Amino acid sequence: xxxxxxxxxxxxxxxxxxxxxxxxxxxxxxxxxxxxxxxxxxxxxxxxxxxxxxxxxxxxxxxxxxxxxxxxxxxxxxxxxxxxxxxxxxxxxxxxxxxxxxxxxxxxxxxxxxxxxxxxxxxxxxxxxxxxxxxxxxxxxxxxxxxxxxxxxxxxxxxxxxxxxxxxxxxxxxxxxxxxxxxxxxxxxxxxxxxxxxxxxxxxxxxxxxxxxxxxxxxxxxxxxxxxxxxxxxxxxxxxxxxxxxxxxxxxxxxxxxxxxxxxxxxxxxxxxxxxxxxxxxxxxxxxxxxxxxxxxxxxxxxxxxxxxxxxxxxxxxxxxxxxxxxxxxxxxxxxxxxxxxxxxxxxxxxxxxxxxxxxxxxxxxxxxxxxxxxxxxxxxxxxxxxxxxxxxxxxxxxxxxxxxxxxxxxxxxxxxxxxxxxxxxxxxxxxxxxxxxxxxxxx
Length: 444
Ligand SMILES: [Mg+2]
Ligand SMILES: [Zn+2]
Hints:
This protein has 12 helices and 20 strands. By secondary structure, the chain is α/β, with parallel strands linked by helices.
């Protein structure tokens, strides 16, 4: 039997952040964003996927929301309301769904101040593929240092939430809670009465301990618009069509980056985190691309695993450092893929499990193909950027445009006889080419 879904919008006003735009009698979810109330954008995105049954949780000035949307028929949906007279936290009002006798199996749950345009079919299919109670959308963002971080294991199971309020030691994955959830109605059993319950600190904590929460990673548009500065940025990105373009129903453009000699300084094999130091222009370049419609994904050969120089976990730790350093400069990677394999036997400490001829070691295209599948990427409108002829050959094999950098090995490896589309001095100039400024490049 197919699962049935409904949607709950939490518009009860969480937090006490300044909201200079709200006049005394406008609840913030009703603020006009390019001509439509914020909640309407959410209803339109969700209802496009055939989910038409909505509950809006309202608080302060909630009657204004109800007056405007009524029963939802004007938008082709059915809306009911739960009005909080005393604040019940982000999840407490879910208790009332039991009293309303909801018949669906699962709930899409979103905060009213998070603007998004996502392909719900993909998120639902991830949710249905996991035997969990909750899936939360996660993504890297440009300010991980002051965001709540989600820690995932190999199965994308959430093992911890690291609050922005706690002191952080060490490196971390840039994996942030976006404020968009799918909850099984079975979780309503934990709400025994109409009482205060925080979603993250209360309900989710309980379910994480039971191993029932998973993180769905996506590059789609999901942004908190809860401060005046963020609200303005979100308006602009809507007007520029970025929300829509990033929906994974649409083909994506991507800049695939090599790692060593491209993002971080070249120093031979990197087998410990101390050896990872960013290239001078890398963070700025990645930030420029983050502000565009391009995804940024690192694809790197790491034969250090096959050679027994370090473990998969060591590589992950090196990648946490890379993400933390980029994040400190407001830059992020949409994903990172690595090939741990190596075909040649004969190294003393080698790990035979990884000594295979694989289809992911560049210049094979396995890592790019995997990302094409995950993010619906259009290779011919994408770029492969790196410091070695191996990267350029990879791009040729995959059918992307190619940019060779003079940083790192600067193409001196001469492993492949191959001509890149562009040769430039550093990643920042490469980002400029991608974004349409060919001024400082040599077009080969
Ligand atoms: Mg390299
Ligand atoms: Zn491989």
